[in-house]
Amino acid sequence: MKDKTMQLPAVPTLDSEAITRAQRELDTKTKPPGSLGRLEHLAARYVAIRGREHLKLPVAEIVIMAADHGIAAASVSAYPQAVTEQMLLNFARGGAAINAIARATRARLTVVNVGVLGNNPEGVLDHRVRAGSRNLLEEEALTADEVERALEVGFTIAEQLAARGVSVVALGEMGIGNTTVASLLSAVFTGAPIDALVGRGTGLDDAALVRKRDVVTRALAKHLPERAQPLRVLAQVGGLEIIALAGLAIGAASRRIGVVLDGFIATSAALVAVQLSPNVKQYLFASHNSVEPGHRVILETLGLEPVLDLQLRLGEGTGAALALPLFEAGVRLFLEMATFASAGVSGRDD
Amino acid sequence: MKDKTMQLPAVPTLDSEAITRAQRELDTKTKPPGSLGRLEHLAARYVAIRGREHLKLPVAEIVIMAADHGIAAASVSAYPQAVTEQMLLNFARGGAAINAIARATRARLTVVNVGVLGNNPEGVLDHRVRAGSRNLLEEEALTADEVERALEVGFTIAEQLAARGVSVVALGEMGIGNTTVASLLSAVFTGAPIDALVGRGTGLDDAALVRKRDVVTRALAKHLPERAQPLRVLAQVGGLEIIALAGLAIGAASRRIGVVLDGFIATSAALVAVQLSPNVKQYLFASHNSVEPGHRVILETLGLEPVLDLQLRLGEGTGAALALPLFEAGVRLFLEMATFASAGVSGRDD
Hints:
The structure is a homodimer.
Chain A: H1 16-27, H2 37-50, E1 60-67, H3 82-93, H4 97-104, E2 108-115, E3 125-126, H5 144-163, E4 168-174, H6 178-190, H7 206-223, H8 230-237, H9 240-254, E5 258-260, H10 264-276, E6 284-285, H11 293-302, H12 318-336, H13 340-343
Parallel strand pairs in A: 1-2, 1-4, 2-3, 4-5, 5-6
Helix pairs in contact in A: 1-2, 2-12, 5-8, 5-9, 6-7, 6-8, 6-10, 9-10, 10-11
């Protein structure tokens, strides 16, 4: 059965020649060729995305999508479900880790409520599709219409980023229970075994980890999700913030905005985006390699190399935000470095 | 035989209780304990170094020490020796990779000439001890007096940093041939086998790599350097910029300035500093893990964890500079994050 279709923003194929040209330009600069390693890969691809001709310093923004999950009732998190709403308020007041890191990296932070239980605090964009997803062990988490509306939240935010001149967006998320949903999505879309994907999230003990693996196993048995029908899979397991992030990744790529992934959840959203729109992959940048085991599995599936080695497991976009200064550094290599010729520096002896 | 003694700036023992207290404070903040991984380790130690009570946003500076090496005559580099002087001019004009990265990370850059052949460009601090070290395959690279003067260059720069209110310094270097000297120093001070330490530097081919290993082997056989006599070892092999960086690390630590290491060369300088003054180790921070094989060996010897995963092999302080934004992020966690209590966020269920 073919998936129910939906109009997605068109994502242009990234010109691989433009990446090659950017890399060749870096090779004329006063440093041994390739000696800035992954920073060069990042910079060359970013420059190809943005276009070399009118290249400017990056304008970075962090977007957190937040929602609740019916599966939280199955005790898959070390924290109570109320924490999603409490953290939304904390983001709005500026007291969370991502607020501190956003200031440190001079990036604007936008927080979007896609379906958190309780009230929407002032300062948080209210795009609630519904008050939390349904419990996926009992029924489908979302309707097809809710999936579509959550994707559209992402498209809408991407439009707003483009209008503000944003050139690189860091994906963040908040939602108690969402590593379980991300585990399900990555099981479906990578085909990797459950034990390789399910981890301790925010800090589960051994017994709770066994319970979480059991939940994922039972959910897969109940819904029999099919990789070829990504929209159906999203209805079966959710979650709203992950779907909205997938929509944001598609919308951003369609506007030639670079997309920086955070940890396991945000990266699972990127995996979803690539299922829906394969060209999105060319616009994705990994930031770090989470201690959550499924993260590495997805990064390998997407062929992405992390640039930070911090053993993070927080989410909120913290890792993605910490990688943002690398984009400015990378662009400045193009705009400000001398060439061997212009600086009168001798080349290699050989 | 005991080493010739020399007056070094006193480096206070870092209070391990202060690190524990800082980590405990982080554990009260609104995030799962330890979920920011190595960023928390970095931040807790930095806060212990600077003192929690009057903690401010970090003031970062990058210092490049530059010098030439007589051993360059043995063709141990892919680039001609003249590149050291040419790059000094490039730094002064703002066209090198480190200039671009310094701007991206809002860090001041200071370039110090400790012994480059040729002229000293305007804008570079002239602290030349001598015009390049001697060829260590023929004679000792430096006299005892020259070693002492190079260390004192580092002490002097550390004083200037302290006077400017700098709280964290990134160590950078430039000197054609200096990976050979760093390989020798790390062979002596880690005891690791030569093959595990000698790499391709700025890009040697296979034949040149064999030649470089042979140079290191012959130099060790000629001088029979003894680990217990670090000042003697420094005279035997040099080099001026590495010794000045070691002096800078000692001087910075004595002033409670955090010291961020770059790649193999800068890290070998830190290894020297720790030989001369063991407490320095507590003030060191690794930035990245270079593709140069000896780098990992020294980092393991010093017990340091890199925070960037960029496969850099440039030097100039580029990796150290790219890690600087993590210090501001880390400090802002202390100054700006809410606690579970102040934000009304629920703790763990268990």
